[in-house]
Design goal:
Number of helices: 3
Region (Disordered): 58-97
Helix content: 40-55%
Radius of gyration: 33 Å
Keywords: Membrane, Transmembrane, Transmembrane helix
Strand content: under 5%
Largest sheet: none
Shape: flat
Transmembrane segments: 20-46
Length: 118
């Protein structure tokens, strides 16, 4: 029994099981994320190594060097539009549409006299 224990000596098994439960819960929380991180690092290293292979590698075939994925850009270089976070529509497209619609209405509403003014 440790000197910093809150329980009496005959209840030390409770502390032991509580510690084991929390270590297990910590493992359950951290293990999936650590696995994904290790997999991601291994995949990136594998892609970089296979890019460098002579004859069959990406460099030999003229392919672009592999890059880590970006949350801000799409693969074609266009910026991503985050619709759910308030970045989807600034209202500019709607205003442009309203201006075009207003111009069309004004042009259609104005009569053009083709008779020469008579």
């Amino acid at each position: 029994m440790a000197w910093y224990s809150l329980l009496p000596a005959d209840l030390s098994y409770i502390e032991t099981w509580v510690v084991r439960i929390f270590i297990f819960l910590g493992f359950v929380c951290i293990f999936p994320w650590a696995t994904l991180l290790i997999f991601d690092i291994c995949l990136y290293v594998w892609r970089m190594v296979t890019y460098e292979f002579p004859v069959v590698g990406g460099r030999a075939r003229g392919k672009q060097r592999p890059r880590a994925p970006s949350l801000n850009e799409r693969p074609d270089g266009q910026p991503r539009v985050l619709v759910g976070l308030g970045g989807g529509s600034s209202g500019r497209e709607e205003k442009e549409w309203e201006v075009e619609e207003l111009k069309r209405r004004v042009v259609v509403g104005v009569g053009v006299d083709t008779t020469g003014g008579e």
